[in-house]
């Protein structure tokens, strides 16, 4: 009960701060399933992205976060409550299993398929790990495009800068990967990751390049 209260209060505070700092536009929030396991797969351009997604997502989220964050005293307690530690150099089988277990128990798990921030704003190649999680859980995947956080909190910035932020949630991909029509019985994880990144790329073309 207390943890839920703290989570909701944190959401309100983050939305308030970002709202007065330039504003937040959220599109497609109704596309996020409110029940059952779901993978939220977003591009990554700023350290602001995880708290932003947590603040605007219409349900409580579990994050896959780099393990170094768990060593920061001021963040350790909060991160342990909401995140699964990930070694960015080598994703261990136990990490994949934890994510799959969370999804099968009905949680929303937020992943950044690129595995690290893009310092140029261009999409990076998706890592194999998200393909494994998607394949083993068969959870629907909601592609997400984030725009503006790289201006609000650029690389090496110490303070927020005024910027308008946009978050777009696409319709979930509900296919069961192992039985999708015209899809191999044993799909390769890299190909699944590429498909997810392609969906995010399509959002980017619609909402970044056209200035929408």
What does this structure look like?
Helices cover 39% and strands 17% of the residues. It is α/β, with parallel strands linked by helices. The protein has one domain (2-207): 3-Layer(aba) Sandwich (Glycerol-3-phosphate (1)-acyltransferase), CATH 3.40.1130.10. The chain has a seven-stranded mixed β-sheet with strand order 1-7-6-2-5-3-4, sandwiched between helices. Helix 5 packs across helix 7 (189-207).
List the helices and strands and how they pair.
Layout: H1 2-20, E1 24-27, E2 38-42, H2 49-56, E3 61-66, H3 73-82, E4 83-86, H4 93-104, E5 108-111, H5 128-137, E6 141-147, H6 149-152, E7 165-169, H7 189-207
Parallel strand pairs: 1-7, 2-5, 2-6, 3-4, 3-5
Antiparallel strand pairs: 6-7
How far is the N terminus from the C terminus?
39 Å
Secondary structure category: alpha/beta
Proportion of β residues? Answer: 15-25%
Weakly predicted, low-confidence segments: 178-184
Strand order of the largest sheet: 1-7-6-2-5-3-4
- Summarize the main sheet: 7 strands, mixed
**CATH topology annotation:** Glycerol-3-phosphate (1)-acyltransferase
Helix content: 25-40%
Please work out how many helical segments DSSP would assign: 7
Strand and helix order? HEEHEHEHEHEHEH
């Amino acid at each position: 009960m207390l943890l839920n209260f703290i989570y909701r209060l944190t959401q309100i505070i983050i939305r308030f701060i970002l709202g007065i700092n330039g504003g937040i536009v959220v599109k497609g929030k109704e596309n996020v399933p409110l029940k059952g396991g779901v993978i939220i797969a977003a591009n990554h351009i700023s350290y602001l992205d995880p708290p932003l997604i947590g603040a605007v997502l219409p349900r409580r989220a579990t994050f896959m976060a780099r393990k170094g964050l768990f060593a920061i005293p001021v963040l350790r307690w909060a991160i342990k409550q909401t995140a699964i530690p990930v070694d960015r150099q080598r994703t261990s089988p136990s990490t994949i299993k934890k994510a799959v277990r969370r999804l099968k128990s009905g949680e929303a798990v937020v992943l950044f398929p690129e595995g690290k921030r893009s310092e140029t704003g261009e999409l990076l190649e998706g890592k194999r790990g998200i393909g494994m999680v998607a394949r083993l859980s068969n959870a629907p995947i909601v592609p997400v495009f984030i725009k503006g956080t790289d201006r609000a909190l650029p690389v090496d910035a110490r303070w927020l800068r005024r910027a308008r932020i946009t978050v777009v949630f696409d319709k979930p991909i509900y296919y069961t990967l192992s039985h999708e029509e015209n899809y191999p019985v044993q799909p390769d994880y890299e190909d699944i990751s590429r498909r997810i990144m392609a969906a995010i790329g399509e959002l980017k073309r619609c909402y970044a390049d056209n200035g929408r």
